[in-house]
Design brief:
By secondary structure, the protein is of the alpha+beta class. The chain has a domain of 48 residues. The chain contains 2 helices and 2 strands; from the N terminus they run ββαα. β1 and β2 form a beta hairpin. The protein is elongated and about 70 Å long. The N and C termini lie far apart (68 Å). The mean pLDDT is 84.
């Protein structure tokens, strides 16, 4: 039997958010996958590590910096 459910961890005990199909006293195997918190979701949203080595640019970096500085003058 395989069952997926959400639970809350409180005071050292996992508390399922719904009734389970397991019998009372039955041994079960538990795998835990924590939901990401807001900071982890933000990091994931800005993770560009998969682009490393894929992007190429042939422009002049110094000239681009000068354009950006001059934009505010």
């Amino acid at each position: 039997m395989k069952e997926t459910f959400e639970a809350i961890y409180e005071k050292g005990v996992l508390r399922p958010l719904r009734k389970l199909t397991a019998r009372e006293g039955q041994r079960v195997r538990v795998s835990i996958e924590a939901e990401p918190d807001a900071a982890e979701q933000t990091r994931a949203a800005y993770d560009f590590s998969d682009l490393v080595g894929r992007l190429t640019w042939t422009g002049d970096a110094v000239a681009e910096q000068r354009k950006l500085r001059n934009e505010w003058e």
